[in-house]
Amino acid sequence: MIARVAALPREVRQYLLVTGNYWAFTLTDGALRMLVVLYFHQLGYSALEVALLFLFYELFGVVTNLVGGWLGARLGLNRTMNMGLGLQVFALAMLLVPVAWLSVPWVMAAQALSGIAKDLNKMSAKSAIKTLVPAGDAGHPALYRWVALLTGSKNALKGVGFFLGGLLLTLIGFQGAILVMAVMLAGVLALSLVRLDADLGRAKAKPKFREILSKSPAINILSAARLFLFGARDVWFVVALPVFLATQFGWDSWRVGGFLALWVIGYGAVQAMAPRITGRHAGRTAAILWAAGLATLPALIALGLQEQGLDMAGGGWQPHVVLLGGLLLFGAVFAVNSSLHSFLIVKLARADGVSLDVGFYYMANAMGRLIGTLLSGWLYMTGGLTATLWVSSAMLAATVAISLALPKEA
Fold first, then answer.
1. How much of the chain exceeds pLDDT 70, in percent?
2. Domain CATH code at residue 136
3. Which residue in 123, 156, 243, 299 is a FRET match for 14, CA 20 to 30 A apart?
Protein backbone atom coordinates (compact mmCIF):
# COMPACT_ATOMS: atom_id res chain seq x y z
CA MET A 1 0.00 0.00 0.00
CA ILE A 2 2.76 2.44 0.95
CA ALA A 3 4.69 1.54 -2.22
CA ARG A 4 1.63 2.23 -4.37
CA VAL A 5 1.12 5.65 -2.80
CA ALA A 6 4.84 6.47 -3.24
CA ALA A 7 4.57 5.59 -6.95
CA LEU A 8 1.76 8.10 -7.54
CA PRO A 9 2.53 11.48 -9.17
CA ARG A 10 3.58 14.19 -6.72
CA GLU A 11 0.39 16.21 -7.34
CA VAL A 12 -1.79 13.22 -6.51
CA ARG A 13 0.17 12.46 -3.33
CA GLN A 14 -0.20 16.06 -2.23
CA TYR A 15 -3.91 15.98 -3.07
CA LEU A 16 -4.29 12.88 -0.89
CA LEU A 17 -2.43 14.54 1.98
CA VAL A 18 -4.48 17.73 1.71
CA THR A 19 -7.67 15.64 1.59
CA GLY A 20 -6.56 13.57 4.60
CA ASN A 21 -5.86 16.73 6.61
CA TYR A 22 -9.24 18.12 5.62
CA TRP A 23 -11.00 14.87 6.55
CA ALA A 24 -9.37 14.69 9.98
CA PHE A 25 -10.15 18.31 10.74
CA THR A 26 -13.74 17.95 9.55
CA LEU A 27 -14.29 14.92 11.76
CA THR A 28 -13.32 16.88 14.88
CA ASP A 29 -15.22 19.97 13.73
CA GLY A 30 -18.48 18.08 13.26
CA ALA A 31 -18.09 16.22 16.55
CA LEU A 32 -17.29 19.43 18.41
CA ARG A 33 -20.35 21.17 16.98
CA MET A 34 -22.66 18.38 18.15
CA LEU A 35 -20.94 18.12 21.53
CA VAL A 36 -21.37 21.83 22.24
CA VAL A 37 -25.03 21.96 21.09
CA LEU A 38 -26.12 18.89 23.06
CA TYR A 39 -23.95 19.33 26.16
CA PHE A 40 -24.87 22.96 26.78
CA HIS A 41 -28.52 22.29 26.03
CA GLN A 42 -28.36 19.59 28.73
CA LEU A 43 -26.86 22.18 31.10
CA GLY A 44 -30.00 24.30 30.68
CA TYR A 45 -28.90 26.83 28.05
CA SER A 46 -31.71 28.23 25.91
CA ALA A 47 -31.70 27.88 22.11
CA LEU A 48 -30.56 31.49 21.72
CA GLU A 49 -27.75 31.04 24.26
CA VAL A 50 -26.55 27.93 22.43
CA ALA A 51 -26.61 29.90 19.16
CA LEU A 52 -24.52 32.65 20.78
CA LEU A 53 -21.83 30.08 21.63
CA PHE A 54 -21.22 29.85 17.87
CA LEU A 55 -21.35 33.60 17.26
CA PHE A 56 -17.57 34.12 17.21
CA TYR A 57 -17.08 30.79 15.40
CA GLU A 58 -18.97 32.19 12.42
CA LEU A 59 -17.93 35.83 12.83
CA PHE A 60 -14.21 35.05 12.82
CA GLY A 61 -14.77 32.80 9.83
CA VAL A 62 -15.74 35.88 7.82
CA VAL A 63 -12.47 37.64 8.65
CA THR A 64 -10.37 34.49 8.38
CA ASN A 65 -11.40 33.72 4.81
CA LEU A 66 -10.50 37.22 3.67
CA VAL A 67 -7.14 37.40 5.44
CA GLY A 68 -6.46 33.67 5.07
CA GLY A 69 -6.75 33.82 1.29
CA TRP A 70 -4.16 36.61 1.23
CA LEU A 71 -1.88 34.69 3.61
CA GLY A 72 -2.20 31.54 1.51
CA ALA A 73 -1.15 33.41 -1.62
CA ARG A 74 1.84 35.01 0.12
CA LEU A 75 3.05 32.25 2.45
CA GLY A 76 1.77 29.05 0.82
CA LEU A 77 -1.27 26.91 1.48
CA ASN A 78 0.78 24.43 3.49
CA ARG A 79 1.31 27.04 6.21
CA THR A 80 -2.32 28.15 6.36
CA MET A 81 -3.49 24.52 6.50
CA ASN A 82 -1.07 23.67 9.32
CA MET A 83 -2.02 26.84 11.18
CA GLY A 84 -5.62 25.68 11.04
CA LEU A 85 -4.78 22.26 12.43
CA GLY A 86 -2.71 23.77 15.26
CA LEU A 87 -5.39 26.26 16.23
CA GLN A 88 -8.03 23.52 16.38
CA VAL A 89 -5.85 21.50 18.77
CA PHE A 90 -5.50 24.60 20.98
CA ALA A 91 -9.25 25.32 20.84
CA LEU A 92 -10.01 21.76 21.93
CA ALA A 93 -7.49 22.05 24.77
CA MET A 94 -9.33 25.17 26.01
CA LEU A 95 -12.42 23.04 26.63
CA LEU A 96 -10.53 20.60 28.87
CA VAL A 97 -10.71 23.00 31.82
CA PRO A 98 -12.95 22.13 34.82
CA VAL A 99 -16.66 22.28 34.04
CA ALA A 100 -17.12 25.27 36.36
CA TRP A 101 -14.86 27.31 34.05
CA LEU A 102 -16.96 26.62 30.96
CA SER A 103 -18.72 29.97 31.00
CA VAL A 104 -20.34 31.44 27.90
CA PRO A 105 -17.42 33.88 27.22
CA TRP A 106 -14.83 31.09 27.61
CA VAL A 107 -16.65 28.72 25.25
CA MET A 108 -17.25 31.55 22.77
CA ALA A 109 -13.50 32.28 22.79
CA ALA A 110 -12.69 28.60 22.15
CA GLN A 111 -15.25 28.53 19.35
CA ALA A 112 -13.71 31.68 17.87
CA LEU A 113 -10.36 29.90 17.55
CA SER A 114 -12.10 26.84 16.15
CA GLY A 115 -13.85 29.01 13.56
CA ILE A 116 -10.54 30.56 12.50
CA ALA A 117 -8.99 27.09 12.31
CA LYS A 118 -11.83 25.63 10.27
CA ASP A 119 -11.82 28.34 7.64
CA LEU A 120 -8.04 28.35 7.31
CA ASN A 121 -8.20 24.62 6.73
CA LYS A 122 -11.12 24.73 4.30
CA MET A 123 -9.78 27.66 2.28
CA SER A 124 -6.42 25.90 1.98
CA ALA A 125 -7.93 22.59 0.86
CA LYS A 126 -10.32 24.12 -1.68
CA SER A 127 -7.64 26.41 -3.12
CA ALA A 128 -5.15 23.56 -3.40
CA ILE A 129 -7.42 21.74 -5.87
CA LYS A 130 -6.81 24.31 -8.61
CA THR A 131 -3.07 24.10 -7.94
CA LEU A 132 -2.87 20.30 -7.84
CA VAL A 133 -5.24 19.29 -10.64
CA PRO A 134 -3.00 17.61 -13.26
CA ALA A 135 -2.09 19.60 -16.34
CA GLY A 136 -4.66 18.90 -19.05
CA ASP A 137 -7.36 18.00 -16.52
CA ALA A 138 -8.22 21.58 -15.57
CA GLY A 139 -11.16 21.61 -17.95
CA HIS A 140 -14.80 21.32 -16.98
CA PRO A 141 -15.43 17.57 -16.32
CA ALA A 142 -12.23 16.61 -14.49
CA LEU A 143 -12.08 19.72 -12.31
CA TYR A 144 -15.75 19.26 -11.38
CA ARG A 145 -15.04 15.65 -10.32
CA TRP A 146 -12.01 16.63 -8.20
CA VAL A 147 -13.93 19.39 -6.43
CA ALA A 148 -17.02 17.22 -5.91
CA LEU A 149 -14.94 14.38 -4.47
CA LEU A 150 -13.16 16.62 -1.96
CA THR A 151 -16.31 18.48 -0.94
CA GLY A 152 -18.56 15.44 -0.80
CA SER A 153 -16.17 13.27 1.17
CA LYS A 154 -15.57 16.12 3.61
CA ASN A 155 -19.26 16.56 4.31
CA ALA A 156 -19.82 12.83 4.67
CA LEU A 157 -17.12 12.84 7.34
CA LYS A 158 -18.70 15.86 8.98
CA GLY A 159 -21.80 13.72 9.35
CA VAL A 160 -19.69 10.98 10.89
CA GLY A 161 -18.41 13.70 13.23
CA PHE A 162 -21.97 14.56 14.31
CA PHE A 163 -22.61 10.91 15.05
CA LEU A 164 -19.25 10.63 16.83
CA GLY A 165 -20.02 13.69 18.96
CA GLY A 166 -23.33 12.27 20.16
CA LEU A 167 -21.80 8.85 20.74
CA LEU A 168 -18.76 10.11 22.66
CA LEU A 169 -20.93 12.38 24.81
CA THR A 170 -23.00 9.36 25.78
CA LEU A 171 -20.04 7.02 26.37
CA ILE A 172 -17.21 9.09 27.88
CA GLY A 173 -18.68 12.51 28.54
CA PHE A 174 -17.83 15.96 27.24
CA GLN A 175 -14.23 16.29 28.40
CA GLY A 176 -13.29 12.70 27.53
CA ALA A 177 -14.51 13.29 23.98
CA ILE A 178 -12.57 16.55 23.70
CA LEU A 179 -9.34 14.89 24.87
CA VAL A 180 -9.61 12.03 22.35
CA MET A 181 -10.10 14.48 19.47
CA ALA A 182 -7.24 16.75 20.54
CA VAL A 183 -4.75 13.87 20.66
CA MET A 184 -5.86 12.52 17.28
CA LEU A 185 -5.61 15.89 15.55
CA ALA A 186 -2.18 16.60 17.04
CA GLY A 187 -0.91 13.44 15.32
CA VAL A 188 -2.34 14.60 11.98
CA LEU A 189 -0.63 17.97 12.40
CA ALA A 190 2.74 16.29 13.01
CA LEU A 191 2.43 14.30 9.76
CA SER A 192 1.35 17.36 7.79
CA LEU A 193 4.31 19.43 9.01
CA VAL A 194 6.67 16.80 7.62
CA ARG A 195 4.97 15.83 4.35
CA LEU A 196 3.16 18.84 2.88
CA ASP A 197 5.04 20.78 0.16
CA ALA A 198 6.43 24.14 1.27
CA ASP A 199 5.43 26.10 -1.88
CA LEU A 200 1.90 24.75 -2.30
CA GLY A 201 -0.35 27.51 -3.67
CA ARG A 202 2.13 30.36 -3.16
CA ALA A 203 1.56 33.13 -5.73
CA LYS A 204 4.43 34.10 -8.02
CA ALA A 205 3.72 37.79 -7.45
CA LYS A 206 3.20 38.68 -3.79
CA PRO A 207 -0.33 40.10 -3.54
CA LYS A 208 -0.90 43.34 -1.63
CA PHE A 209 -3.30 43.37 1.30
CA ARG A 210 -5.79 45.57 -0.57
CA GLU A 211 -6.25 42.73 -3.07
CA ILE A 212 -8.24 40.65 -0.56
CA LEU A 213 -11.47 42.06 -2.02
CA SER A 214 -12.50 40.47 -5.30
CA LYS A 215 -12.46 42.61 -8.43
CA SER A 216 -14.35 40.02 -10.49
CA PRO A 217 -18.09 40.73 -10.98
CA ALA A 218 -18.76 37.01 -11.53
CA ILE A 219 -17.11 36.03 -8.23
CA ASN A 220 -18.92 38.83 -6.39
CA ILE A 221 -22.29 37.60 -7.70
CA LEU A 222 -21.49 33.97 -6.95
CA SER A 223 -20.36 34.94 -3.45
CA ALA A 224 -23.61 36.80 -2.74
CA ALA A 225 -25.61 33.79 -3.91
CA ARG A 226 -23.50 31.54 -1.67
CA LEU A 227 -24.23 33.76 1.34
CA PHE A 228 -27.98 33.25 1.05
CA LEU A 229 -27.62 29.57 0.11
CA PHE A 230 -25.79 28.66 3.30
CA GLY A 231 -27.79 31.03 5.46
CA ALA A 232 -30.86 29.11 4.26
CA ARG A 233 -29.39 25.85 5.51
CA ASP A 234 -28.05 26.99 8.88
CA VAL A 235 -31.14 28.99 9.83
CA TRP A 236 -32.81 25.69 10.73
CA PHE A 237 -29.97 23.20 10.92
CA VAL A 238 -27.53 24.64 13.48
CA VAL A 239 -29.71 25.18 16.55
CA ALA A 240 -33.43 24.93 15.76
CA LEU A 241 -33.47 21.36 14.42
CA PRO A 242 -31.32 19.66 17.13
CA VAL A 243 -33.27 21.43 19.90
CA PHE A 244 -36.61 20.60 18.25
CA LEU A 245 -35.69 16.92 17.95
CA ALA A 246 -34.65 16.83 21.61
CA THR A 247 -37.61 18.76 23.05
CA GLN A 248 -40.57 18.01 20.73
CA PHE A 249 -39.70 14.49 19.58
CA GLY A 250 -38.09 13.57 22.90
CA TRP A 251 -34.90 12.23 21.32
CA ASP A 252 -31.77 11.74 23.43
CA SER A 253 -28.33 12.95 22.33
CA TRP A 254 -27.55 9.60 20.67
CA ARG A 255 -30.60 9.78 18.38
CA VAL A 256 -30.20 13.48 17.60
CA GLY A 257 -26.53 13.03 16.74
CA GLY A 258 -27.29 9.89 14.76
CA PHE A 259 -29.98 11.48 12.60
CA LEU A 260 -27.97 14.62 11.85
CA ALA A 261 -24.97 12.41 11.12
CA LEU A 262 -26.92 10.36 8.59
CA TRP A 263 -28.27 13.56 7.05
CA VAL A 264 -24.82 15.04 6.51
CA ILE A 265 -23.30 11.71 5.38
CA GLY A 266 -26.02 11.38 2.76
CA TYR A 267 -25.56 15.03 1.82
CA GLY A 268 -21.83 14.44 1.31
CA ALA A 269 -22.44 11.31 -0.75
CA VAL A 270 -24.79 13.21 -3.08
CA GLN A 271 -22.23 16.02 -3.36
CA ALA A 272 -19.59 13.55 -4.50
CA MET A 273 -22.03 12.18 -7.12
CA ALA A 274 -23.16 15.62 -8.33
CA PRO A 275 -21.17 15.45 -11.59
CA ARG A 276 -23.11 12.29 -12.50
CA ILE A 277 -26.43 13.90 -11.53
CA THR A 278 -25.94 17.14 -13.46
CA GLY A 279 -23.76 15.72 -16.23
CA ARG A 280 -21.99 18.40 -18.22
CA HIS A 281 -24.66 20.94 -17.30
CA ALA A 282 -22.78 22.59 -14.45
CA GLY A 283 -22.89 26.30 -15.21
CA ARG A 284 -25.14 29.30 -14.64
CA THR A 285 -28.39 27.69 -15.81
CA ALA A 286 -27.91 24.62 -13.62
CA ALA A 287 -27.16 26.78 -10.57
CA ILE A 288 -30.38 28.76 -11.10
CA LEU A 289 -32.64 25.75 -11.71
CA TRP A 290 -31.35 23.67 -8.81
CA ALA A 291 -31.64 26.64 -6.41
CA ALA A 292 -35.21 27.29 -7.58
CA GLY A 293 -36.16 23.67 -6.89
CA LEU A 294 -34.55 23.82 -3.45
CA ALA A 295 -36.43 27.01 -2.51
CA THR A 296 -39.78 25.21 -2.59
CA LEU A 297 -38.83 22.48 -0.10
CA PRO A 298 -38.61 24.39 3.22
CA ALA A 299 -41.95 26.07 2.46
CA LEU A 300 -43.59 22.71 1.78
CA ILE A 301 -42.17 21.25 5.01
CA ALA A 302 -43.41 24.26 6.99
CA LEU A 303 -46.89 23.93 5.48
CA GLY A 304 -46.94 20.24 6.30
CA LEU A 305 -45.93 20.85 9.92
CA GLN A 306 -48.47 23.62 10.37
CA GLU A 307 -51.24 21.33 9.11
CA GLN A 308 -50.17 18.77 11.72
CA GLY A 309 -50.47 21.22 14.58
CA LEU A 310 -48.14 24.22 14.21
CA ASP A 311 -44.87 22.25 14.29
CA MET A 312 -45.69 20.33 17.47
CA ALA A 313 -44.92 16.62 17.68
CA GLY A 314 -48.14 15.56 19.34
CA GLY A 315 -50.04 14.58 16.18
CA GLY A 316 -48.79 10.99 15.93
CA TRP A 317 -46.39 9.85 13.27
CA GLN A 318 -47.23 12.46 10.62
CA PRO A 319 -44.95 15.27 11.85
CA HIS A 320 -42.03 12.83 11.92
CA VAL A 321 -42.62 11.85 8.29
CA VAL A 322 -43.13 15.44 7.14
CA LEU A 323 -40.07 16.81 8.91
CA LEU A 324 -37.57 13.97 8.58
CA GLY A 325 -38.59 12.97 5.05
CA GLY A 326 -38.65 16.58 3.92
CA LEU A 327 -35.24 17.33 5.38
CA LEU A 328 -33.72 14.26 3.72
CA LEU A 329 -35.00 15.51 0.37
CA PHE A 330 -33.76 19.02 1.17
CA GLY A 331 -30.32 17.60 1.95
CA ALA A 332 -30.06 15.80 -1.39
CA VAL A 333 -31.06 18.84 -3.46
CA PHE A 334 -28.95 21.19 -1.33
CA ALA A 335 -25.94 18.91 -1.91
CA VAL A 336 -26.17 19.34 -5.67
CA ASN A 337 -26.47 23.13 -5.24
CA SER A 338 -23.42 23.22 -2.98
CA SER A 339 -21.35 21.08 -5.34
CA LEU A 340 -22.25 23.27 -8.32
CA HIS A 341 -21.21 26.38 -6.40
CA SER A 342 -17.96 24.83 -5.19
CA PHE A 343 -17.06 23.91 -8.76
CA LEU A 344 -17.95 27.34 -10.16
CA ILE A 345 -15.73 29.23 -7.70
CA VAL A 346 -12.72 27.03 -8.46
CA LYS A 347 -13.39 27.34 -12.19
CA LEU A 348 -13.76 31.15 -12.09
CA ALA A 349 -10.86 31.82 -9.68
CA ARG A 350 -7.59 33.13 -11.08
CA ALA A 351 -4.84 30.52 -11.51
CA ASP A 352 -2.09 32.52 -9.75
CA GLY A 353 -3.07 33.34 -6.20
CA VAL A 354 -6.24 31.23 -6.37
CA SER A 355 -6.69 31.46 -2.60
CA LEU A 356 -7.51 35.19 -2.87
CA ASP A 357 -10.68 34.51 -4.87
CA VAL A 358 -11.55 31.35 -2.97
CA GLY A 359 -11.00 33.12 0.35
CA PHE A 360 -13.32 35.97 -0.64
CA TYR A 361 -15.98 33.49 -1.75
CA TYR A 362 -15.83 31.51 1.49
CA MET A 363 -15.95 34.76 3.42
CA ALA A 364 -19.45 35.16 1.97
CA ASN A 365 -20.14 31.52 2.89
CA ALA A 366 -19.11 32.25 6.50
CA MET A 367 -21.25 35.38 6.59
CA GLY A 368 -24.25 33.32 5.48
CA ARG A 369 -23.57 30.78 8.22
CA LEU A 370 -23.23 33.57 10.79
CA ILE A 371 -26.56 35.12 9.83
CA GLY A 372 -28.23 31.70 9.70
CA THR A 373 -26.85 30.68 13.10
CA LEU A 374 -28.07 33.82 14.85
CA LEU A 375 -31.47 33.64 13.19
CA SER A 376 -31.74 29.94 14.04
CA GLY A 377 -31.79 30.50 17.80
CA TRP A 378 -33.86 33.69 17.74
CA LEU A 379 -36.49 32.49 15.26
CA TYR A 380 -36.91 29.18 17.05
CA MET A 381 -37.58 30.97 20.35
CA THR A 382 -40.06 33.40 18.79
CA GLY A 383 -41.78 31.37 16.07
CA GLY A 384 -40.77 27.71 16.36
CA LEU A 385 -39.25 25.49 13.71
CA THR A 386 -41.73 26.55 11.03
CA ALA A 387 -40.50 30.15 11.27
CA THR A 388 -36.94 29.03 10.50
CA LEU A 389 -38.19 27.03 7.50
CA TRP A 390 -40.10 29.99 6.03
CA VAL A 391 -37.02 32.19 6.34
CA SER A 392 -34.94 29.44 4.74
CA SER A 393 -37.27 29.42 1.74
CA ALA A 394 -37.05 33.21 1.42
CA MET A 395 -33.24 33.09 1.53
CA LEU A 396 -33.20 30.49 -1.24
CA ALA A 397 -35.46 32.69 -3.36
CA ALA A 398 -32.83 35.42 -2.93
CA THR A 399 -30.15 32.94 -4.09
CA VAL A 400 -32.12 32.36 -7.30
CA ALA A 401 -32.58 36.07 -7.93
CA ILE A 402 -28.88 36.82 -7.45
CA SER A 403 -27.79 33.87 -9.60
CA LEU A 404 -29.70 35.32 -12.54
CA ALA A 405 -26.98 37.98 -12.73
CA LEU A 406 -24.18 35.43 -13.29
CA PRO A 407 -22.49 35.75 -16.70
CA LYS A 408 -23.84 33.32 -19.30
CA GLU A 409 -20.41 31.76 -19.79
CA ALA A 410 -20.11 30.83 -16.07
1. 81
2. 1.20.1250.20
3. 156
